[in-house]
């Protein structure tokens, strides 16, 4: 089974979405964003948040690829911003040996 950081590093999204996520991650406020995105009152730990966010993002990506009428680019970017920022938190709090392997988090989105 893949770990969370490997899943994040293997995400492939359009350049515009990836850039917006990287820029937006600097202004991310988890206490305000996560309860709304995850529909919960309690803010989960970064690892749990990333897993839940990845599930939501996968469903949103499926809508984008299917050109569904209810696809929201703004929501998609918001999910990617949250994933980016939460992944940065995971990397920052990881033990040094794991942190060295997880370098390049800012560049985990690639163009498809």
What does it look like?
- α2 crosses α5, α3 (30-38) crosses α5 (73-93) and α4 packs antiparallel against α5.
- The protein is globular.
- Helix content is 65%, strand content 0%.
- With 112 residues, the protein is mostly helical.
- The two termini are 24 Å apart.
- The longest helix has 21 residues, at 73-93.
- It has helices spanning 4-9, 15-25, 30-38, 46-65, 73-93, 96-101.
- The model has no long low-confidence stretch (mean pLDDT 82).
Summarize the structure.
With 112 residues, this protein is mainly α. It is built from six helices and no strands.
What distinguishing features does this structure have?
112 residues; mainly alpha; 6 helices; 65% helix; globular
């Amino acid at each position: 089974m893949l770990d969370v950081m490997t899943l994040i590093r293997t995400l492939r999204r359009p350049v515009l979405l990836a850039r917006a996520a990287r820029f937006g991650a600097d202004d991310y406020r988890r206490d305000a964003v996560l309860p709304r995105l995850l529909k919960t009152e309690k803010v989960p730990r970064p690892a749990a948040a990333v897993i839940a966010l990845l599930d939501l993002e996968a469903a949103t990506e499926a809508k984008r690829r299917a050109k569904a009428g209810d696809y929201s680019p703004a929501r998609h970017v918001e999910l990617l911003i949250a994933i980016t920022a939460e992944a940065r938190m995971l990397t920052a709090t990881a033990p040094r040996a794991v942190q060295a392997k997880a370098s390049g988090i800012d560049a985990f989105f690639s163009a498809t």
